Amino acid sequence: MSTGMLTIKNKELQIDIVNPANLDDKHFFSRYSYCGYIKQISHLATGRQVLDMPFTPFAQYHGEGFPEEFEMPINYDSVKKGGDFIKIGVGILKRGSHGRYSNEGNHPVQYMAPVSVKELPNGLLFSQGITVGDYGYFYEKKVRMEKGSSFSISHSIKNSGRATWKSLWYSHAFLVLGGHKKGLKFFNTPNCHETKRNRNLVETNGAYQWNGIFGKTGFCVNFSVKPGLPNYHKVIDADNKFSFEAHGDYKYQELQLYVNKRIFSPEPKLTFELKPDASINWSTLYSIKRL
Q: For the whole prediction, is pTM greater than 0.85?
């Protein structure tokens, strides 16, 4: 695996991002976006690495760090098996089945859409675009260091084709866990509720505490979000003595948590539809603090 990384930092945090110029890097696969794939965030005062991978050894499908995916391809349903479709952040993929789209890697990458990188004050701008026939997109992602122990991620997508399309974006944040894991707490917006009660997550006055049980493969917990609510979630890990906090300016429809013995991952989801020449923008401010 190529080890070349792009790095940005301030006095408290360092962010290592997979370099899109290293086309042989194993992170480049059919699932996660190549634009600003964050591999690691380090807390400089303590030397602690904030992110991990959900399983070892590294697997492209499982990913690591802070990967993002546009899980709903642009024109998958308009082609038959063997035909080409577009996936934002990746490029052109070949449809490998007759069934519904799956991100498990059964759709080979035919063309890796190039990613350009531009230096910004305190950050980097990643850009990627592709148009095939009636379908296309232009995508920009900014990763910037902010004051103190904070950084921001901003997204902008434009429909560059002649046909309307839908997509679904979400992010992982594979936060390292340690200790006995009963010191793990989660907070979110007041009217964000579990779609199905999970016995491993105990709620008290809006705060959720994990009971330390994970099983062999871990658990997913899903929350529904009422439209118009502020976008907020926070993780407090008393064992590792750190907090992870996210404030977004967009209205996500769902929040999923994935937890196993290695990681705790909040995963906000945003579904959108764009007509030709229309665009959408959203951003999140993150803070990582030592308790």
A: yes
